[in-house]
Amino acid sequence: MDLTTALAAIYPPDRLLTRASALASYESDALTAFRTRPLAVVLAETRQEVIDTVRLCHAAGVPFVARGSGTSLSGGSVPLDDGIVIALNRLNRIVRLDPVDRIAVVEPGVINLDISAAAEPFGLYYAPDPSSQSVCTIGGNVAFNSGGAHCFRHGMTANHVLGLEVVLPDGEVVRLGGDSVEDVGPDLAGLFVGSEGLFGVALEVTVRLLPRPESYRTVLASYTSLQAAGDAVTRIIAAGLLPGAMEIMDRLAMDAAEAAVHAGYPPGAAAVLLVELEGDAAQAEAELARLSAVLEASGPSHVHIAANAEERALLWKGRKCAFSAVGRLSPDFIVQDGVVPRTKLGDALVAIEQLSRQHGVRVANVFHAGDGNLHPLILYDGREPGALARAEALATDILRLCIRLGGSITGEHGVGLEKRAFLPEMYRPEDIAFMQRLRESVDGRRLANRGKMLETPA
Q: Which pTM value belongs to this model?
């Protein structure tokens, strides 16, 4: 019995997709430069269906990839033409929410923002907030160790996942971690988070919840250059301040966001720095006074403090819609995800501007300034001959710049298909060999998300 016949014994026809028209939506993720049509897609609705599918794939030697909302920006959920896509969007239950222990147990298809909505009546929330948080799933956040604007203070997904129930690539079901931040033994849950699906599929995720801050103070400082905005971040860190978030946007990104949501960004600025303080009211006010002094010394052209919750929300709406809003400026774009040390932010931004001019390709800069995570949006028109190649050449130079400055090729988007070729430039051969051995100890047949991250492109 072939695999599709075996899958038909588990899934009704409307949840086993094999026709070309039905498979088209699963050929790529948010990085549409990579596209492959899978053998089949299964729309799982229970954990047992996921387990049975993985076991069938293992028995048949067929590769598989788990997929949530498909918002990956590195080609991380692109299938193989002989592989199976296990779609997890329908596993979207919040299994348990415990406001006393401040934890939530959720299925992998739960939308990130839905956890905070469920926790809101108890004065709690889920801290990691990627820009796609209104549509991205927790399973995808786990796979790529997503961060977001507030990761500077609160950390990445790995800092908020306490435990996991996982089906390994051979079909074995295991529990990793627990429901406490003080778990003993090796951090196996931490090993799974960020593994980009190479170790299997998460069936349940236990996350910790945080008390919602009593007060926010959100400050927008505008500058006449990107470097000045980057240098201001260095000053804030040196002053010992720990904001909840620090974000920078350049003129192009602001123009796109203004056209989309009218966030109120200053029209004459080359760059803006968005800084958010949080805590009890007295703490936020005291830190605001210190921050104001630091920003004044950084030479801004203008400083504005959000007057109320509505204005704060609008400033953040503009920042979080920047990726999609850039579509107003260009029919196509590549989003990069390199990281540089915070002390090198100013240097990195000047270099990116120079590279943009050299390649003749426009770049809109949006990034998490607090942890040096750059998100240059490289704009091109795929209908123009050679445009994609020029954009990719610029993206390559930016990643190599990050490595040269002592940073990383990815902060939260992952390696996926896009950045595999850069691993040997960042790691020693023996480091990569160790990662390969670790992966093969769990999945010797390389069935789980085959071709991603650790496999060198042809």
A: 0.92
